């Protein structure tokens, strides 16, 4: 079953239309790659799906409800199911707070941990889940490597217990060897947690290695779509 379905979605910035009538679905356990040149609308779609920008037309539906017009009561529980991880986890981590705190806060915010000690323990577990030493929880972001920080970004996203994970250029800023580790982690997580994963990247070699299906966007329109091996097959 699909975890999210995007139907005929249009997204505007003022009078500029960035996404024109795009439709796709992502199933549980699947990695769907969104590829396309810079400016083709990938991030706009990602941010909109994560609830950060309302589409001007079309629908976005999660298996638990309508994402475009959720009721005030349902919105928080629906929103936490769709989590976004960005290119530079660095920029969204508070430099003066420990990385454990960064993972603990959303646990409290989303109500997935009831008490402060419970949140601290769950944060350590999530840090272990992204294959890091839980003792790193006490460090500041600057005391971690770029790859470690990106994993903390993933751990923080997992705190919402999402079933949809949007990975927006998460390996772009990393060295090639570190990229491979983060990709393997993502691949493991979607299997273990049955995550529907929307994987945004402009790196076609990376996409080829990890995606089950691919959508190609150009100027806000889907120009190609299919299983990875078909999309990458020589014409
Ligand atoms: P991609 O992620 O594929 O590089 P974006 O979603 O960032 O593409 O951009 C899609 C289009 O929307 C581009 O034409 C871009 O210039 C435009 N755009 C993106 N962000 C804004 C913004 N904040 N204000 C106006 N236009 C924007
Ligand atoms: P405190 O340590 O101040 O008691 P909590 O541990 O209760 O804070 O965490 C709640 C915090 O989560 C909020 O203060 C808020 O800054 C932060 N937060 C806000 N929006 C989000 C979000 N979308 N995802 C995760 N955390 C968020």
Keywords:
alpha/beta; 4-stranded antiparallel β-sheet; 10 strands; 36% helix; binds adenosine-5'-diphosphate; Peptide ABC transporter ATP-binding protein
Written overview of the protein:
It contains nine helices and ten strands. The longest helix is centred in the C-terminal third of the chain and has 18 residues, at 176-193. The radius of gyration is 17 Å and the shape is globular. 36% of the residues lie in helices and 27% in strands. With 235 residues, the chain is an alpha/beta fold. α5 (116-129) packs across α6 (146-158). The protein has a six-stranded mixed sheet, with helices on both faces. Strands 2-1-4-5 form a four-stranded antiparallel sheet, with helices on one face. β4 and β5 form a beta hairpin. The structure holds adenosine-5'-diphosphate (2 copies). One adenosine-5'-diphosphate binds next to α4.
Mean of pLDDT: 92
Our Rg estimate from Cα atoms comes to: 17 Å
What sequence of helices (H) and strands (E) makes up the elements? EEEHEEHEHHHHEHEHEEH
**Considering DSSP H and I runs of 4 or more, what fraction of the residues is helical?**
25-40%
User: Distance between termini?
Assistant: 31 Å
**Beta-strand proportion:** 25-35%
Task: Please count the beta strands (DSSP E, at least 2 residues each).
Answer: 10
Helix run count: 9
Bound chemical compounds: adenosine-5'-diphosphate
Structural class: alpha/beta
What does the largest sheet look like? 6 strands, mixed
* Anisotropy-based shape: globular
Uncertain segments: none
Task: Kindly report the spatial arrangement of strands forming the biggest sheet.
Answer: 6-7-8-3-9-10
Organism: Streptomyces scopuliridis RB72
Protein name: Peptide ABC transporter ATP-binding protein
Family: Belongs to the ABC transporter superfamily.
GO molecular function: ATP binding; ATP hydrolysis activity
């Amino acid at each position: 079953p699909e975890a999210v379905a995007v139907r005929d979605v249009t997204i505007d910035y003022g009078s500029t239309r960035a996404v024109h009538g795009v439709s796709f679905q992502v199933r549980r356990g699947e990695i769907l790659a969104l590829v396309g040149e810079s400016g083709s609308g990938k991030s706009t779609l990602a941010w909109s799906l994560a609830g950060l920008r309302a589409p001007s037309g079309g629908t976005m539906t999660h298996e638990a409800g309508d994402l475009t017009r959720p009721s005030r009561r349902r919105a928080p529980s629906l929103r936490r199911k769709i989590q976004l991880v960005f290119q530079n986890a660095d920029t969204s981590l508070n430099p003066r707070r420990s990385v454990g705190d960064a993972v603990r806060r959303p646990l409290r915010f989303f109500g997935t941990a009831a008490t402060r000690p419970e949140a601290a323990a769950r944060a350590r577990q999530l840090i272990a889940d992204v294959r890091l030493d839980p003792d790193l929880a006490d460090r500041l972001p600057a005391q971690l490597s770029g790859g470690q920080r990106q994993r903390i970004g993933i751990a923080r996203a997992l705190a919402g217990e999402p079933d949809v994970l949007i990975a927006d250029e998460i390996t772009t800023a990393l060295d090639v060897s570190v990229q491979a580790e983060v990709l393997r982690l993502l691949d493991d997580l979607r299997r273990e947690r049955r995550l529907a994963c929307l994987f945004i990247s402009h790196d076609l070699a990376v996409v080829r290695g990890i995606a089950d299906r691919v959508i190609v966007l150009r100027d806000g329109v889907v120009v190609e779509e299919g299983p990875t091996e078909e999309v990458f097959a020589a014409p």
